[in-house]
Amino acid sequence: MLIKKPASIPSSEITPQSVYLNRRKFLAGVSLAGAALATGRGLLEMVSPLTTVQAGAKLNAVLKSPFSTPEKQTPYNDVTHYNNFYEFGTSKEAPAERARNFKTSPWTLSIEGLVNKPRTYDLDAILKIAPLEERIYRHRCVEGWSIVVPWIGFPLNALLKQVEPLSKAKFVAFQSFYDPQQMPVARYAGIPFPYVEGLRMDEALHPLAILCVGMYGETLPNQDGAPIRLVVPWKYGFKSIKSVVKIRFVEQQPPTTWNLATPREYGFYSNVNPNVDHPRWSQAKERRLGEFFKRPTLMFNGYGDQVAQLYAGMDLRKNF
Ligand SMILES: Nc1nc2c(c(=O)[nH]1)N[C@H]1C(S)=C(S)[C@@H](COP(=O)(O)O)O[C@H]1N2
Ligand SMILES: [Mo]
């Protein structure tokens, strides 16, 4: 990572953005960095207990990825103040306000179902699953807006390899945290909670699918799904489930929240597809946040070269 691999970049180069670090944490980070140099141990390994403490802490030792788009990144302020996170309200501005005191530490992620090695991870263990990478991805919401975000995470397949799915496992089911006490307005959202999502096994193994722990060089803000979320860039945004607490390996296609709520409008696959309209609007174009003119939406959100073969022979009109 920072010590061993020259390809790594300091997070300060990702986006110029001032970060508040309290003095004690800053000093601890510096001395640990020194110790990492002296012992040759990875910096991430040594600082991860500090970086996981709260949203908005710097994530060091982040590798660049060849999967990143060179497109202009959406401003941080837009990505953190125009959110869908229905547990915290249905307006785009609500999650930034209402998730402010969301308690994300301590956090556990449990892996269950058809695996050889079921396991419960705390956040420090999650951060040790694989080296953290920056992945600058396009994100296309089914509602017609899009953003370009420098996510930080690691391939979902790295976790899968640790828990060793059985050959019977054909799908992966994800579940979000839900606590009506902390999310009192969720009951007015009109969708069932906890929020659930799913992927077919080959989709989950695809190197573009990541578990995301940060963005713009820092841990995830609460409104963007702290402390850990999924990011699947070739699918509509609602597949990228936030604040994940459970991942279950199953034989049958699992239920997904938007399909449960409105099956006529939202299918299981939800691949970005400009040729298949939503029943109530066209999906041919999108508006990048911060831009005035719409741009054409690309098949598989522009990731077709990498993912189209996953759906070879499937009728994407039926499997929407
Ligand atoms: N738990 C949960 N995850 C969720 C949602 C939600 O309401 N609850 N909204 C989804 C939708 S519709 C989108 S577009 C993305 C938005 O992610 P962002 O706010 O970080 O841009 O999160 C997805 N993940
Ligand atoms: Mo969305």
Work out the count of structural domains: 1
List SSEs in N-to-C order: EHHEHHEEHEEHEEHEEEEHEEH
CATH second-level architecture: Alpha-Beta Complex
Number of DSSP strand runs: 14
Spatial shape: globular
Overall structural class, as computed from helix and strand content, comes to alpha+beta
Terminal Cα span:
40 Å
Helix content: 10-25%
State the CATH superfamily name: Oxidoreductase, molybdopterin-binding domain
Q: What are the bound molecules?
A: the ligand Nc1nc2c(c(=O)[nH]1)N[C@H]1C(S)=C(S)[C@@H](COP(=O)(O)O)O[C@H]1N2, molybdenum atom
What's the short version?
Helix content is 19%, strand content 22%. By secondary structure, the chain is of the alpha+beta class.
Key structural traits:
Sulfite Oxidase, Chain A, domain 2; alpha+beta; 320 residues; binds the ligand Nc1nc2c(c(=O)[nH]1)N[C@H]1C(S)=C(S)[C@@H](COP(=O)(O)O)O[C@H]1N2; binds molybdenum atom; disordered N terminus; nine-stranded mixed beta sheet
Please tell me about this protein's structure:
With 320 residues, this protein is of the alpha+beta class. The chain has a single domain, classed as Oxidoreductase, molybdopterin-binding domain (Sulfite Oxidase, Chain A, domain 2, Alpha-Beta Complex), CATH 3.90.420.10. It is built from 9 helices and 14 strands. Strands 1, 2, 5, 6, 9, 10, 11, 13 and 14 form a 9-stranded mixed sheet that branches. Helix 1 packs antiparallel against helix 2. It is globular and about 45 Å long. Bound molecules: the ligand Nc1nc2c(c(=O)[nH]1)N[C@H]1C(S)=C(S)[C@@H](COP(=O)(O)O)O[C@H]1N2 and molybdenum atom.
